């Protein structure tokens, strides 16, 4: 049980954590949608209330190095668990480096299956070195090992990124990768790319937001249905010229030879989904694993030996077979607040719903006792067309939940800064931040009225840098037509953390210090009048 604090009895009203997804802090104004947004409410909070900056990237959130940006999974894991675990990116890299991955049963089953049946080994996943969902180095290591182990035929299905890496960088990955395959290819080892498409068009949907994407991915990778191209470079060049889309939004393509797809997925094949992050892996995994599947008509359901890079959901045991064990995230704040008998409420719209539930609770999909979840359906549109997204509805729901008096601890996520930040539109991203400002201005007074306190923070940066800046010159890069190259990925910047307290008469503030997202759970525990769990990182709260 969490122990009661002796120095502080705790706030009587609700404690509310508000995550402004993708709203990082940078002193640089140019290309910074957060700084440029008209957000009088948030600006006044920064003047009036105790605040600090939190580290939200790199080793502070369990990534392999401080060159790695933060992301929603590692960010919400750290906030919810109050601790830093080595995350998927680091665990897989290590397992490959030590060779452990290839000694485990999952890899052996995958490879023995294709050797025994003389069938094809397929790799499917996000094709970049973004290290948010996947890393192309992991893919290359597995292909090289497959050759070493005498596998005869490998097909690769590539989901183009442009969201964790520069927006039109796909060919920078395809070129060197084709060369890598050319060097491995031999009469005994037949390897090539078989299909692909933009990650926001096919396969990588999350939280059941748009199953059509997964259906289109299934048609492309499994059935080999779609537009044929002779190779990936030709596909990308043609589709770019026709659609003007950036990589994440490019339509699907099928690589064909002599009028037939080179790599459909068939009975007896093995399939490795090489993304380590779970949210955008669960739906396609279900399509490959579920015997009775209702989300779309698969037309053909090949009997394959399937493995995910990690296990994506420990409660649902999805997938059954995985190459590397996921981080065992234990003693989350959700669990211990539940054990303390507290009532918890979590809310977001579909795009971030799993962030405040599944990621928050250490990648568990089931609830702890006393938890209530509310999902507001997201629009299925390009978010630069609706930068306000469902911020008003999230605010309405949070106001109702706070005012109901039913909950001790509440959490919500406003997706705007992140989802609109990823589109690369600076104009829309400033509106996104402004929509969050409107929401805060409505919600916080209701927390006052209930005698509560709020922490306003974020999980990582995104909207704070909308220009792709040349590291050497510090100037924005430009496209061929002279326009500024947009940055669609997350940033390395810290995030704000504001303690909104109008109820203790100034007794509480945040200590100066070198803090990160993992210090939030203990801080919330203190606000509730509890000591932190022994495994959580320290509280930032100073109590007078
Ligand atoms: O959209 C996503 O999948 C990632 C970026 O790859 O963003 P976030 O971590 O904010 O969910
Ligand atoms: Mn995020
Ligand atoms: Mn994001």
From TrEMBL:
The keyword Isomerase applies. The keyword Transmembrane helix does not apply. It comes from Hallerella porci. Gene3D superfamilies: Alkaline Phosphatase, subunit A, BPG-independent phosphoglycerate mutase, domain B. It is an enzyme of class 5 (isomerase). Residues 92-313 form the BPG-independent PGAM N-terminal domain. Residues 14-532 form the Metalloenzyme domain. Its EC number is 5.4.2.12. Keywords: Glycolysis, Isomerase, Manganese, Metal-binding. It catalyses: (2R)-2-phosphoglycerate = (2R)-3-phosphoglycerate. Pathway: Carbohydrate degradation; glycolysis; pyruvate from D-glyceraldehyde 3-phosphate: step 3/5. Belongs to the BPG-independent phosphoglycerate mutase family. InterPro entries: Alkaline_phosphatase_core_sf, BPG-indep_PGM_N, Metalloenzyme, PGAM_B_sf, Pgm_bpd_ind. This is 2,3-bisphosphoglycerate-independent phosphoglycerate mutase. Its cofactor is Mn(2+).
């Amino acid at each position: 049980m969490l122990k009661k604090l002796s120095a502080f009895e705790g706030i009587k009203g609700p404690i509310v954590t508000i995550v402004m997804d993708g709203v990082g802090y940078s002193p640089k104004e140019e290309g910074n949608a957060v700084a440029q947004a008209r957000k009088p409410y948030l600006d006044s909070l920064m003047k009036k209330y105790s605040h600090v900056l939190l580290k939200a990237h790199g080793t502070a959130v369990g990534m392999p190095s401080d060159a790695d940006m933060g992301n929603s999974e590692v960010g919400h894991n750290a906030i919810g668990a109050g601790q830093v675990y080595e995350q998927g990116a680091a665990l897989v890299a290590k397992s490959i480096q030590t060779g452990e991955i290839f000694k485990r049963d999952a890899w052996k089953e995958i490879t023995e299956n294709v050797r025994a049946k003389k069938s094809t080994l397929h790799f499917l996943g996000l094709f970049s070195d973004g290290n948010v969902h996947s890393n192309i180095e992991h893919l290359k290591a597995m292909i090289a090992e497959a050759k070493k182990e005498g596998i005869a035929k490998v097909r690769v299905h590539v989901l183009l990124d442009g969201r964790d890496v520069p927006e039109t960088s796909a060919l920078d990955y395809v070129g060197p990768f084709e060369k890598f395959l050319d060097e491995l290819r031999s009469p005994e080892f037949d390897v090539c790319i078989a299909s692909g498409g933009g990650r926001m068009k096919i396969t990588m949907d999350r939280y059941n937001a748009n199953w059509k994407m997964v259906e289109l991915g299934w048609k492309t990778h499994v059935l080999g249905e779609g537009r044929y191209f002779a190779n990936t470079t030709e596909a990308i060049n043609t589709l770019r010229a026709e659609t003007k889309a950036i990589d994440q939004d490019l339509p699907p393509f099928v690589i064909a030879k002599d009028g037939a797809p080179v790599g459909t997925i068939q009975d007896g094949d093995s399939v490795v989904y090489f993304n380590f992050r779970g949210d955008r892996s669960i739906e396609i995994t279900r399509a490959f694993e579920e015997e009775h599947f209702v989300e779309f008509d698969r037309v053909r359901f090949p009997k394959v030996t399937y493995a995910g890079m990690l296990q994506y959901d420990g409660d649902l045991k999805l997938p059954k077979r995985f190459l590397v064990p996921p981080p065992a995230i234990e003693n989350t704040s959700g669990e211990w607040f539940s054990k303390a008998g507290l009532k918890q409420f979590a809310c977001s719209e579909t795009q971030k719903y799993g962030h405040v539930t599944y990621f928050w609770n250490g990648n568990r999909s089931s609830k702890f006792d006393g938890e209530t979840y509310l999902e507001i359906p997201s629009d299925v549109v390009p978010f630069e067309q609706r930068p306000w997204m469902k911020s008003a509805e999230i605010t309405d729901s949070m106001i109702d939940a706070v005012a109901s008096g039913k909950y001790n601890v509440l959490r919500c996520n406003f997706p705007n800064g992140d989802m609109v930040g990823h589109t690369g539109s600076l104009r829309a991203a400033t509106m996104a931040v402004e929509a969050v400002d409107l929401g805060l201005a409505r919600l916080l007074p209701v927390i006052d009225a209930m005698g509560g306190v709020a922490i306003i923070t974020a999980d990582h940066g995104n909207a704070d840098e909308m220009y792709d800046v040349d590291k050497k010159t510090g100037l924005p890069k430009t496209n061929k037509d002279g326009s500024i190259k947009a940055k669609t990925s997350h940033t390395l910047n810290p995030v704000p953390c504001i303690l909104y307290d109008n109820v203790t008469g100034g007794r509480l503030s945040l200590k100066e210090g070198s803090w990160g997202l993992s210090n939030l759970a203990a801080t919330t525990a203190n606000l509730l009048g509890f000591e932190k769990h022994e495994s959580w990182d320290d509280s930032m709260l100073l109590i007078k």
